[in-house]
Design a protein that fits this description.
The complex is a heterodimer of chains A (319) and B (284). In chain A, 49% of the residues lie in helices and 16% in strands. With 319 residues, chain A is an alpha/beta fold. In chain A, strands 1, 2, 3, 4, 5, 6, 7 and 8 form an eight-stranded mixed beta sheet that branches. In chain A, helix 10 (225-233) packs across helix 11 (239-246). Chain B has two domains: 1-58, no CATH class; 59-283, 2-enoyl-CoA Hydratase, Chain A, domain 1 (Alpha-Beta Complex). Classes of the chains: A alpha/beta (319), B alpha/beta (284).
């Protein structure tokens, strides 16, 4: 288990507990009472820490090296999953994965950004930063889902769309814009879930849908805290202030009306108990797809347009 | 001569009489930022702020575009009452509200976008035009709402829509709400598409970030002024990421035309003419 800076007190107690247990196992002293006491103490401490995380700490949890990524969830949600590749024009982007999966007997299209699980894979997945062909692969698969009347679930976990020469040459902006336009008009239900990082255009490029959710320890905003700090504070060192100012947590986004709900994570984060995270996720997906499937496709499209048309905070001055 | 006399003023005052000096008051001469040649401001303005030597297009504001585009420079400004609000209480070196107040003061504009309606050679046209001077032409709630209302207006009037983009991207001080303007504007444009109302997008220098990744790239016709910077990521960010120098002309209009993302490049002096042609061609 990797511990983050603010988790150090837990790590220390955990270490003491492990030592205590070792003494107990050696059988010379009865440590049952002390172990129980220590466990309770750790439980309280954890509860206290994780229920009072600030914005920057949540950002750190969203990037935790042990955090499960898109493919882990898809593979554990589905009895069977067939990954599909390529945009049929340029290539197969490794930062966005997608395919059809059977979950409790129903077919869904699952797609999302995929980060790498080790150094080599992180390079291979381009750190979850997609090129235009990734967004175009996503659109191709969504059109396929629409054709066969299958609901769509997208998973968002990206530090942004890739800023590269080829990405610009092949129209990064156009690819994202096209997805926003086409996703508005999809005839099937679409739900989008932020699993980790939801950074800017790269995130919303697969993030327009009927209902949007965030896992509890994730962030979603127009720019990363580091990016915002380096522009407005002129140094990335001010990332913690930027994270607060941007109001980027799940709770913030729920209060701003950007998302429709928060999916609870196990105490300490999704990585602490990935199986229970899968259960929570599955429950949320099934419930929402069921509700959305009851609507007429045209009614759903209109509701989608109305939902986004209502987003914005402004005032009108009278002359 | 003693050495101290070197520092002694022998003649009093400056000898050139004021009458003999060449006058160069501000605003008479302009130096082209591209070819560095100087020319008279009057000539520059008559040439729609285009350099007479190298055709470099300097930035125009929304009012100047409306004057160029509409018949007899007559038009009606719409939705001018919309104002941004600092709903997050966003503060970096200064608060968003202070930034807004300074921008109102400095530019005399109400936000980074103005919408107008009028006719072009008798054909109705709604134009939504961005102003770069207002917080870097950033897109926040007001920009998004003005586009949404411009779409509604174009639908009501069955008139074509032109959006002139000029923006550094989404407005950070409105955080995820400004990100949602990408979705909002794109979703609204589907309504025009479904009703068969033409939407023309004109990209001018610079068009980057969230604006490019939403309405700017979604035109039935995508056009750009010559030499405009157009892209998703800014050149500096790309350079830092790939740690290489960028090719010459990268992310300029001509590069986008070659890459297949523009229908054509239009010289500002021919913009009105081009719009007239398009409005006839797309007339229902």
């Amino acid at each position: 288990m990797t511990y983050l800076e603010f988790e150090k007190p837990v790590a220390e107690l955990q270490e003491q507990l492990d030592k205590l247990r070792l003494i107990g196992e050696q059988g010379k002293v009865d440590v049952t009472a002390s172990v129980a006491e220590m466990e309770e103490k750790i439980g309280e401490l954890r509860k206290n820490i994780y229920e009072n995380l600030n914005a920057w700490q949540r950002v750190q949890l969203s990037r935790h090296p042990d955090r499960p990524y898109t493919l882990y969830y898809i593979e554990n949600l589905c009895e069977n999953f067939v990954e599909l590749h390529g945009d049929r024009a340029v290539g197969d982007d490794k930062a966005i994965v997608g395919g059809f999966g059977l979950m409790d007997g129903q077919t869904y299209l699952f797609l999302g950004q995929q980060k790498g699980v080790n150094t080599k894979m992180r390079q291979y997945r381009r750190f979850g930063m997609a090129n235009p062909e990734g967004y175009r692969k996503a659109l191709r698969l969504m059109k396929l889902a629409e054709k066969f009347n299958k609901p769509i679930v997208t998973f968002i976990d990206t530090p942004g769309a890739f800023p590269g020469i080829e990405a610009e040459e092949r129209g990064q902006a156009e690819a994202i814009a096209r997805n926003l336009f086409e996703m508005t008009l999809l005839k099937v239900p679409v739900i989008c879930i932020v699993l980790g990082e939801g950074a800017s255009g790269g995130a919303i490029g697969i993030g327009l849908g009927d209902r949007i959710f965030m896992l509890e320890n994730t962030w979603y905003s127009v720019i990363s805290p580091e990016g915002c700090a380096s522009i407005l504070w002129r140094s990335a060192d001010f990332k913690e202030q930027a994270a607060e100012a941007l109001q980027l947590t799940a709770k913030n986004n729920f209060e701003l009306g950007i998302i429709d709900g928060i999916i609870k994570e196990p105490l300490g984060g999704a990585h602490v108990n990935p199986k229970s995270m899968v259960t929570n996720l599955k429950r949320a997906i099934k419930k929402n797809i069921k509700e959305l499937s009851a609507m007429d496709p045209e009614e759903r499209i209109q509701a989608r347009i109305d939902k986004y048309s209502a987003m914005g905070r402004f005032t009108e001055v009278s002359k | 001569m003693e050495r101290v006399s070197w520092f002694k003023r022998l003649k009093e005052g400056i000898t050139t009489s004021t009458r003999e000096k060449k006058e160069a008051p501000d605003g008479v001469w302009v130096k082209c930022p591209s070819c560095k040649k100087a020319y008279r401001n009057k000539e520059f303005l008559e040439n729609l702020k285009i350099c007479p030597y190298c055709d470099h297009h300097s930035r125009l504001n929304s009012e100047e575009y409306f004057d160029i585009i509409y018949d007899e420079s007559e038009y009606k400004i719409l939705f001018a009452d919309l104002r941004s609000i600092d709903f997050l209480g966003f503060t970096d070196s200064k608060s968003y509200q202070v930034r807004l107040d300074e921008a109102y003061e400095k530019t005399g504009l109400s936000d980074a976008m103005a919408v107008a309606e009028g006719t072009v050679d008798g054909h109705p046209l709604v134009v939504a035009c961005m102003d770069f001077e207002f917080i870097g032409g950033s897109m926040g709630s007001v920009v998004g709402e003005k586009i949404a209302r411009a779409v509604d207006r174009a639908l009501e009037q069955r008139s074509a829509l032109l959006i002139i983009s000029k923006s550094g991207g989404a407005r950070m001080m409105e955080s995820s709400i400004s990100l949602m303007q990408l979705a909002k504007t794109s979703a609204k444009l589907t309504q025009l598409a479904r009703e068969g109302v033409p939407y023309f997008s004109l990209m001018t220098d610079p068009t980057t970030g969230g604006v490019t990744a939403s309405y700017a790239m979604l035109g039935d016709i995508n056009m750009a002024e010559p030499g405009a910077l157009i892209g998703f990521a800014g050149p500096r960010v790309i350079k830092e990421t790939i740690k290489k120098d960028l090719p010459k002309g990268f992310q300029r209009s001509e590069f986008l035309l070659e890459s297949g993302f523009l229908d054509f490049i239009v010289d500002r002096r021919l913009l009105r003419q081009r719009l007239m042609e398009l409005l006839v061609l797309f007339k229902s």
